[in-house]
Design a protein that fits this description.
The protein is mainly alpha-helical and 472 residues long. Helices cover 47% and strands 9% of the residues.
Length: 472
């Protein structure tokens, strides 16, 4: 095995990748980049009933958007091609034959019903449950084979104490017999995870496996397979899972917690990467905001927590707003284009760029740009219920008076517009808040908008006056 650090991320795409899995991929990527090593993307797609091509491409696109690049993978190739397990079936079959010949694996003819019945009976007697090794006996196998049964291939787990020196959890021990023999290949010839992942990690020279601690017991099993093949197991780091608001491990059942869902909500990739990095890891107690390069320079496994992290959507929104405010206006405007276009608008990029300083402080997601700035890019303004109520409650003739005053305001700049609005409010015996409300409602169709004088400056005199007179 090479002395170069080589990590991998191996999703099994059956839909959008949720942020808990993405966080694991991020840790693997950051560890490799920190040590100047290689990051490998490998697709676990042996289960054709679950994995779709759309999901495979979607996962890869989500990872790219998040900022994770890989040195080897299905789309870029590499020295250990192919990187999709569905294309490596011949490799797994050859390995299974080798394990059978060595006596490290055997054919198992037991049905799932028989295994469950015997396991339940053992548990009722106070004995360990799980597979009891029935087909280890050659005579039993011969009898089952004579019945015409089909066989799965099961690994003969060494009957000794198994020790895992985990880089996050420390030393973990399993007593002899605690880890039972497990299936490597189904009777239909398809490989299981415990075979494919061990074989690929060995053949691809993976030095460090960083994954969720729901796979903790896979560690000694993977290691045993690799050792049976004469290889050296990688170092394992099992990180605690990310929990949702309900305190349970984050998964697809939590709804909009996929990377794609946050992308469509207008979360910046920089903010999501930063937030995910801090779920169960920290640079130090005082650091919250990290750039991509700062994360690479700081990341290592010694500061990964042993306790589960709780996903806090509000903190992510707060961090996203911080990053939104840090963007240059032209960059932010270009990122908002997608959300305005999706809403059926065709914004002028120059005008959109000029509007950014008015909204960036209050914009928690890019998607909110549509609500805040719609009035600039369409004249089809329909006041919402609250705005309509405010327009109806304006003093008689007030909007017409404001329209007349603004029609002659010079120059058409925020300061002069502010003065004109204040004068109109004063003449109607209204304070600034109550004087501005009906104007905002008529011009934007909402009670929420960027600062009003600056908004009117951007909208232009002609469009502003026309809207006021329309609702007057």
């Amino acid at each position: 095995m090479s002395s170069e650090v080589r990590t991998r991320f191996a999703p099994a795409p059956s839909g959008s990748i949720h942020v808990g899995n993405a966080r694991t991929g991020l840790f693997s990527w950051a560890f490799a980049r920190h040590h100047g090593g290689a990051f490998v993307l490998r697709i676990e797609d042996t289960d054709a009933s679950r994995v779709t091509e759309e999901a495979v491409h979607g996962v890869m696109e989500s990872l790219r958007w998040l900022g994770l690049d890989w040195d080897e993978g299905p789309d870029v190739g590499g020295p250990y091609d192919p990187y999709r397990q569905s294309q490596r079936m011949d490799v797994y079959r050859a390995i299974v034959e080798r394990l059978l010949e060595q006596g490290d694996a055997y054919r198992c003819y037991c049905t799932s019903e028989e295994i469950k019945e015997r396991s339940d009976a053992a548990q009722a007697r106070g004995e360990p449950s799980g597979y009891d090794g029935r087909c280890r006996d050659p005579e039993v196998r011969a009898a089952f084979e004579a019945e015409g049964r089909t066989a799965a291939i099961r690994f003969r787990m060494p009957e000794r104490e198994h020790v895992l020196h985990d880089l996050v959890k420390g030393e973990i021990r399993w007593s002899p017999g605690q880890l039972r023999d497990f299936v490597l290949m189904r009777s239909d010839g398809s490989p299981l995870f415990l075979l494919a992942v061990a074989v690929d990690d060995m053949l691809m020279g993976i030095t460090h496996v960083i994954r969720g601690d729901d796979l903790l017991e896979s560690g000694p099993r993977n290691a045993a397979v690799i050792e049976a093949l004469g290889g050296t197991p990688p170092a394992y780091a099992h990180v605690p899972q990310v929990h949702g608001p309900d305190g349970k491990p984050l998964s697809k059942r939590h709804g909009s917690t996929s990377v794609e869902a946050f992308r469509e909500q207008g979360i910046l990739p920089e903010a999501l990467m930063n937030y995910l990095a801090l779920l169960g890891w920290s640079k130090d107690a005082d650091t919250t905001f990290l750039s991509r390069q700062e994360l690479i320079e700081a990341f290592d496994l010694d500061r990964v927590s042993r306790n589960p992290a709780r996903f806090d959507a509000e903190k992510l929104l707060w961090m996203n707003n911080h990053d939104v405010q840090s963007l240059e206006d032209d960059d932010l405007a270009s990122r908002c284009l997608h959300f305005l276009s999706k809403a059926g608008l065709s914004p002028d990029l120059g005008l959109l760029t000029r509007a950014m300083p008015l909204v960036k402080e209050r914009m928690r997601t890019l998607a909110e740009s549509e609500q805040l700035l719609r009035f600039l890019f369409t004249d089809d303004i329909a006041p919402d219920d609250k705005a309509a109520t405010i327009i109806a409650g304006a003093p008689e003739g007030y909007l017409e008076a404001v329209a007349g005053a603004l029609e002659t305001t010079e120059p058409w700049q925020a300061e002069a517009i502010m003065a004109a609005l204040d004068a109109c409010a004063g003449a109607a015996d209204l304070n600034r808040t109550k004087g501005f409300q009906p104007v905002r409602a008529a011009v934007t169709g909402s009670t929420v908008s960027p600062p009003l004088p600056e908004s009117l400056e951007l909208l232009g005199r002609e469009r502003t006056v026309a809207r006021l007179r329309r609702f007057a």
